[in-house]
Amino acid sequence: MSQSNYIKKVAIVGATGTVGSFIVEELLKKGKFDITAVTRKDSQSVIPAGLKVAKIDYDDESTLVNALQGQEVLVITMHTLAPPGTQEKLIRAAAAANVPYVLPNEWGPDLADEAMANDVLLGRAEAPIRKLIEELGKSAWIGMVTSFWYEYSLGLGAETFGMDWKKRTWAFFDDGETKINTTTWRQSGRAVAGLLSLPIDPEKEGGASLSGYKNRFVYVSSFLVSQKDMFDVVLRVTGTKASEWTIEREESTQRFRDAQKRRRDGDQTAFPQLLYSRVFYKDGCGNYEVRRGGLDNDVLGLPKEDIDEATKIAIERAEKGLKYH
Predict the structure, then answer these.
(1) Which residues make beta-bridge pairs with 183?
(2) What is the value of pTM for the model shown?
(3) Cβ neighbourhood burial of 74 (10 Å; 0-12, 13-18, 19+)
C-alpha cells in the first residue's frame, strides 16, 4: 500500500471495454498510477502498453485475491450481461485482499433515486453490491453517476434518445423538453482519473479528498440537455433542416409501460427503451445536477466540453451502425 496520502496502485476490470478503455487512457495520462488489468485467463484482449496484467479464473477465488493483493482501488467495468455473481466474486476478493476502495459497476443514472432505480431494474442489481461491500467491512464503495453516455446513446438508435439518423426520424418523449444529464465516455474516464488523484485524506480543513466520498455517489456530467436541444445541435452540425425530419411524440410513461410489457413477454431487447424512457420522466430524476444541488465536476477538475464535437462522434457512430466500439 502507498505510504503517501495519494493512491498509487489501481486494478481495473474491463480495461479494454467501452468506458474502461477511456478510464485507462486518462489514468495513464496522469503518469502516477501503477495500473493492473484484471482479465480472464482465456481472454484474448490486447492490454494497452503500460499496464500490468493479472490473469484470473472466476471459479477459483484464490486467483482473484492474488490479483488484488496490494491494490488500493478496484475499478469494475463490465457488460450488463456478464454472468450473474461475477461482480460479487470480485467484491469478496477485494475484501479478502483488503482493498480500501471499490468503484462498482455503476456508470449510469442516479441509483440513489430508489424508485427510479427499481423501475429500471438496475437498483436490484447494484444496491445489494453496495450493501455487500459495507457488510464485509474491508472496502468502501464509490458510485460513479454518469447518466447515459452521450455519443453512444445519441448514435445508437430510436430506443435510446429517440433519434434514428438514417431514417431521419426522432421520437420526442412528452414535449421533448425534459432535460437530463449525460456524459461522454471521455469525461467518464477523466472523472475517475480526477477522483483517484485526490488526496486520500483532506490536506486542509474542508478540502476535497477520496475518503470524503466513502460510500457515496460522485455526480459528473458533460451536458444538461433535452431532446429538443439535441435535435438543434444535430441540425447545426449536419446541415440538415428540420423539414427533412419526421418528428413523432410519445408519452414517456406509456413508452415505459410498453417496454415493461415487452420484457414480460420475453423480449429482452426492450431494456434500452425501458431504461431511457423512465429516466426521461418529467419527475426530474434524470436531472441530478439540479436534484442533488450541483455536480462534482469542478472538484475533479473536469473541463467544459463541446457538444458539437460530441454530436459529430455520435452521428459518425450512427452512420457506421456501431453499438459499442
Answers:
(1) 149
(2) 0.96
(3) buried
Would you tell me the crossing angle of helices 185-196 and 18-30 to the nearest 10 degrees? Answer: 50
Which is nearest to 287 in space by CA: 190, 167, 206, 182?
A: 182
Task: Please tell me the distance from the alpha carbon of residue 75 to that of residue 12, in angstroms, as a whole number.
Answer: 5
Residue type (1 letter), 302 = L
Q: Does residue 7 contact residue 36 with C-beta atoms inside 8 Å?
A: no
Length of the chain: 325
- Alpha carbon dihedral 175, 176, 177, 183, in 10-degree steps, equals 160
- Mean pLDDT in residue range 22-42: 97
The three-class DSSP label of residue 247 is strand
Question: What are residue 293's phi and psi, to 5 degrees?
Answer: 75, 25
Cell of 241: 433542416
- pLDDT tens per residue, range 170-200: 999 999 999 999 999 999 999 999 999 999 9
User: Do 139 and 95 touch, CB atoms closer than 8 A?
Assistant: yes
Residue 8 Cα distances to 4, 40, 94, angstroms: 9, 23, 16
Angle at 193 between CA 17 and CA 43, to 5 degrees: 25
What DSSP designation does 108 have?
B
Among residues 3, 5, 2, the alpha carbon closest in space to that of 200 is found at 5
- Core vs surface per residue 103-121: b (16+ CB within 10 A) or e: bbbbbbbbbbbeebbebbe
Phi-psi region of 217 (alpha: psi -120 to 50; beta: other; left: phi over 0): beta
pLDDT digits (tens, 9 = 90+) for 47-97: 999 999 999 999 999 999 999 999 999 999 998 778 889 999 999 999 999
Q: Residue 28 phi/psi, 5° resolution?
A: -65, -35
* Tens digits of residue pLDDT in 248-278: 999 999 999 999 999 999 999 999 999 999 9
Residue 106, helix vs strand vs coil: coil
* Largest Cα–Cα separation, the chain: 63
pLDDT tens readout for residues 302-317: 999 999 999 999 999 9
